[in-house]
Amino acid sequence: MRAVQLTAWQSEPELREVPVPRPGPGELLLRVDAAGLCHSDLHVMSCPPGTLPYDLPMTLGHEIAGTVVEVGDGVDGSWLDRLAVVHGVWSCGTCHSCRRGHENHCLHLDGRVGFGLGRPGGLAEYVLVPAARQLVAADGMVATELAPLADAALTAYHAIRLHREAIEGGTVVVIGAGGLGHLAVQILKQTTDAHIVVVDTRPAALEAAREHGAHTTGTTVAEAVDAPVDVVLDFVGADSTLAAGAEVLAPGGRLVMVGGGGGSMTVAKGRDLPLGWHVNAPFWGPRQDLEAVVELARGGQIVADIEVVRFSDTLDAYRRLREGDVRGRIVVVPD
Ligand SMILES: [Zn+2]
Ligand SMILES: [Zn+2]
After folding, report:
1. Helix H segments across 63-134?
2. Do 68 and 84 form a contact (C-beta atoms < 8 A)?
3. What pairs with residue 257 in β-bridges?
4. How many whole angstroms separate alpha carbon 299 and alpha carbon 141?
5. Where exactly are the structural domains of the chain?
6. DSSP at 119
7. Which of 52, 93, 216, 247 has its CA 20 to 30 A from that of 28?
8. Which ligand is nearest to the CA of 154?
9. Which ligand is nearest the CA of 61, by number?
């Protein structure tokens, strides 16, 4: 089968021919019907050797929707032919965190956190899934709309759920209305009563955010915000966005760093942050939150803005993602 593989650090991925995996005991084989491209893939490609504990070559792709075509010994055969979205965290299912429903904090991830992020990913004709508990059934839904739920929607939903108490009845600022942020706006609108402020430098992204329910928009935080806010969801994560977010926090406010833009800040008592500050960097999300976003999508409450590309065009699509020449999420489908 063909797969999009990273073969060397600090290089572009390649289309390569690899064997179709066979499911062992407890495992399932999915035919990949749709796979999303993510900025974190670009981050992985750009890492110098020794940064990430991944073995190369590695198939990329951590937003996967597909159909179960083969099951290993011990797997419920009723999974066959079902469409599912894959919970991408390669969790053990049995550790302290997994037992509490925090699979995204599994104690055994060992740096190789999931599909396409240390483990074989979904940018291939087939992908091996280690356990049925990593699938969320999505019968009757559309694969291209499902794939972005696995990371873009899940990560946004998880960040919002963690801070729901502060968001309800308050004001939340979303910085960056791209692949994750545009879904965050919809999730906030559909599941909270917050006043939603959206900041993005691109006029088209702000227009879409208003359609999705943003109450106030602006090209800078300072322009969009005129009173202290309860929660800042920073989907960029650059030095400048973290600083701008910290600037407008109310006492007790929460600065949530979701985007991996490489920014940093100093946190200390009595310095730049308001009294009672919270700073948090959520990671991806647990299975229960993936189930929640699948239900929101099933009910039409959230809809990912997608651009569908053919598998053969994946390398070109990554180049456009790097150049910022995309709107919404790129989703790859078989040729
Ligand atoms: Zn991602
Ligand atoms: Zn675990």
Report:
1. 96-99
2. yes
3. 234
4. 10
5. 2-151+285-333, 155-280
6. E
7. 52
8. 1
9. 1
Gap between the Cα atoms of 64 and 127, Å rounded: 9
Strand, coil or helix: 333: strand
CATH node for 155-280: 3.40.50.720
Indicate the angle between helix axes 287-298 and 181-191, nearest 10 degrees: 80
Largest CA distance in the chain: 60
Q: Which two tokens stand for residue 196?
A: 């939603």
| Per-residue pLDDT reduced to its tens digit, 227-281 | 999 999 999 999 999 999 999 999 999 999 999 888 999 999 988 899 999 999 9
User: 106: which 2 tokens?
Assistant: 């599994």
**280-322 tens-digit pLDDT:** 999 999 999 999 999 999 999 999 999 999 999 999 999 999 9
Distance 152 CA to ligand 1 centre (A): 6
| CATH architecture group of domain 2-151+285-333 | Alpha-Beta Complex (3.90)
CB-based burial, 110-126: b 16+ in 10 Å, e otherwise: eeebbbbbbbbbbbbbb
CA of 99 to the centre of ligand 2 (A): 7
